[in-house]
Structure prediction request, 319 residues.
Amino acid sequence: MSDIQTIATIGEILVEFVSHSRNCALQKISDYSGPYPSGAPAIFLDQAARLGARTQMIGGVGADGFGRSVLARLEQDGVGTKGVHVSASHSTGVAFVSYYDNGDRDFVFHLQGTAADAFDVSPALLDPAKTMLHVSASSLGAPSMRAKIMPTVRKVCEAGGWITCDPNARPELMRDDEARTAMLETIELSHCLLPSTSDLDFLFPDLGEEAAIDLLLKSRAEVIAIKRGARGATIVGRGERHDFDGHPVEEIDPTGAGDCFGGTFISLLAQGASLFEAGQRANAAGAIAVTRRGPMEGNSSPSEIADFLCTATPKKQMA
Ligand code: ATP
Ligand code: MG
Prediction:
């Protein structure tokens, strides 16, 4: 990992509109705010850049106000945007989200046929041997996106670079056999995995958590970061385990917390932090993220995370 120079992502860049009415199911007229910069790979990379890593985003936006706003945010936060194609003929991708009282959410995505999908991966942009390529497996659902991501995953892996993967194993995505195959191949090639507990349940329905972790560590994975929502996170390395309790915070908008957690964790690991330090800061960054409306608005700076950790009162230690 010492040779890693750049953290890169390939995938959807979009803007999101958040409904202010709970339980409206995106069916009833309600107030929305936005456009909030969004897209799982973009949120992840924005946070990785804020934590000090050199980054390269590969994706697309339209030559419209939405595209200009998300691109300006990425640039302002220090993300490398040479790989972002600005399309004159396609509009920026858009998502709408609404929450229920029980925490469930409804999304409407407009991605296929938009600028989010209208870009090429330029081989000159990345030195595969020195790249840590992060894949948010939700991006693998669209065939055109898959065709851009998978060749680069294989190239980086063969050259000795690192693959990191958030399985985001949504049942809606896995209805497509090719999406599932691409996700399983990416998991197989990953050095670091960032599953949520529901990802583990989905991927290994017949195994308990410990057995699932053991199985993953038997392949290439050297580090597994398990995201537990309000219950915190667990980091497992070879011969190392750290459990972090969830910080007590008021959850306003949970979307993007997983990407913010991942961007923090991977950025710090790439810069030489210990698993404990990277996990502790990622767990704090995820908690900060849920307190702010807008998926990328929850991203934070190293000093905000440090201040949060100074004042946060941890819950009792997990058993
Ligand atoms: P996403 O909804 O973006 O896919 P995810 O399911 O991948 O998210 P989560 O487990 O929801 O990931 O959140 C990532 C991390 O953020 C958690 O492991 C935890 O550290 C922190 N976190 C999330 N929600 C809360 C919360 N309500 N209170 C405190 N910390 C939280
Ligand atoms: Mg979640």
Summary: The chain has one domain: 6-318. The CA atoms of residues 6 and 54 lie 5 Å apart. The two ends are 32 Å apart (CA to CA).
